[in-house]
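Regression test case RT-17, inverse folding.

Input:
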């Protein structure tokens, strides 16, 4: 029988994995990896503002992550060179957040938990917020699945079918902001992008359809959470990075397996 804190950690991790699986597929398909990274880094600034104004950390991080995601999406729509822009925005937001926390009077907070996550410290309230946020993200993606797929495949094709690519982009922007807010407690700001990208990238080696890739990404994320927690408990390693390590090992295994199958087929 698992202890309460372990059960809460496992349920929170599984909820985040279910949300990041399909969302991560769109991040991979649209080549938005750095976009997710910039949004995640902005979450630290959200933590600082939440502590300063004495509001919920979840609300602070979601608002700032949403603002960052909308700014990046707007700049991308105007044709800005996104590699440089994202680099400037991501690291500037992280630096401003870290500096802002140091100026808060009578506030002593361990930023390591926000940078790398602290899933074992998830409370019942945190779990409720994580589950609700993950359900919102999954619901958004399921609701707009066909539109998102068509807009990802071709914006011109989407427009000809009566789908507004800008609206679909905003759905992804909102979903990404919510995921950043709920995943901050699990893997931290520096590793959120990894949880989005690595399971989806591993699933791409196994899937033959978009729906199958999303399902595999959720499964790989869930296995990564379970394996990461096992590693953390057995070897006293940090929980967030341990989850990402398991995901990376699965990605390596699927990549090597796909390469072997391709080599055999070529013969």
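Golden output:
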């Amino acid at each position: 029988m698992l202890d309460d804190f372990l059960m809460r950690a496992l349920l929170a991790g599984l909820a985040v994995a279910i949300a990041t699986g399909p969302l991560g597929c769109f991040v991979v398909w649209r080549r938005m990896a750095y976009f997710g990274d910039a949004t995640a880094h902005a979450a630290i600034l959200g933590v600082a503002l939440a502590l300063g104004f004495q509001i919920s950390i979840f609300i602070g991080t979601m608002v700032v992550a949403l603002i960052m995601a909308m700014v990046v999406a707007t700049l991308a729509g105007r044709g800005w060179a996104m590699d440089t822009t994202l680099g400037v925005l991501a690291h500037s937001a992280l630096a401003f957040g870290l500096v802002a926390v140091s100026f808060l009077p009578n506030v002593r907070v361990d930023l390591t938990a926000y940078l790398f996550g602290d899933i074992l410290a998830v409370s019942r309230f945190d779990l409720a917020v994580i589950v609700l946020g993950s359900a919102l993200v999954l619901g958004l993606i399921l609701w707009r699945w066909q539109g998102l797929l068509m807009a990802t495949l071709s914006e011109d094709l989407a427009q000809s079918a009566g789908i507004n690519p800008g609206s679909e982009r905003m759905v992804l922007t909102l979903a990404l902001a919510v995921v950043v807010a709920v995943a901050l407690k699990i893997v931290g700001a520096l590793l959120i992008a990894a949880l989005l990208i690595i399971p989806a990238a591993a699933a791409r080696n196994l899937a033959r359809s978009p729906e199958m890739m999303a399902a595999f990404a959720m499964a790989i994320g869930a296995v990564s959470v379970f394996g990461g927690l096992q590693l953390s408990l057995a070897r006293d390693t940090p929980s967030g990075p341990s989850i990402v390590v398991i995901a990376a090992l699965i990605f390596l295994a699927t990549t090597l397996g796909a390469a072997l199958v391709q080599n055999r087929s070529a013969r």
